Amino acid sequence: MKRILFCGFCIFLVTLFPISLMAADYVAEAELAYARGGLEGYKQAIELYEKALAENPNSYESNWKCSRAYREYGNEAKSQKVEGWKDICAKYGKSGMQYAQKAIELGPDKPDGHYYYGLNVGIYNNGVGIFTALSEGLKGKTQTSFEKTYEINKMYKDAGPMLSLGRFWAVLPWPLHDRKKSLKYYREYQATEYFADNFEAYVYLGELLIQIGGDENKAEAKGLLEKATKSDDPYFRDKAKELLTKIK
């Protein structure tokens, strides 16, 4: 009798919470796929997060993590210079922005959605170009997203908001860019423990120092870019070599 009652209770639970249980399983599998990394890992993670969201569309966790996976897929395609990487960046960046926006709506006081919205705009920009992104009104949204993340927790994701804001103010075309603000955020990031092993940051700061000019800035840029040429990332390794040719 007890066994019958127990089984009946189990059936009741499964009937009551099937969506939550299934969505949780998808999220757990997605985390493993994301941790494997690479194009295949990120793509599988996206598929699994989207399955979880089909069951529970208002999951804050699944929305921001799906956005993160979209961003990493686009970034990996760019870094490895796979065929058609610009089209991939445009497509995946746009989708990533949509999931991040949903996460922002679900958790406006949490950093994840804001941060990955901005990063996905960056990936989208890599695909369509800065002027297309600006024409779509993404400048203000990106600035707001990174500044909100910085306000909530500037050390989030290894001090990512500092580096992101530095890059944001550096890449805007004239007269929108602000090299003084960019350098301020880069220097703040440079003072953290995360700068030492980040070749991407070397390239970004090196590029800005070349643009600012001056013998001391160029000397610092040269040192940073020479280190960046040893990166395993083809995109930043080649970018560092290209920038070194501009130092006279």
Structure, explained:
The chain is mostly helical. The chain has a domain at 178-248. The chain is built from 13 helices and no strands. The radius of gyration is 21 Å and the shape is globular. The model is unreliable at 1-19 (pLDDT under 50).
Q: Helical region count?
A: 13
Number of strands: 0
Helix fraction by DSSP (H/I, runs of at least 4): over 70%
pLDDT averaged residue by residue: 91
Rounded to an integer, what's the Rg over CA atoms? 21 Å
How is the biggest beta sheet arranged? none
Query: What percentage of amino acids are in beta strands?
Result: under 5%
End-to-end C-alpha gap: 87 Å
Give a quick set of tags describing it.
248 residues; disordered N terminus; mainly alpha; single chain; 0% strand
Can you summarize this structure?
The protein has helices at 2-16, 18-36, 38-55, 60-79, 85-106, 111-128, 130-135, 138-153, 156-171, 179-190, 199-212, 215-228, 234-244. With 248 residues, the chain is mainly α.
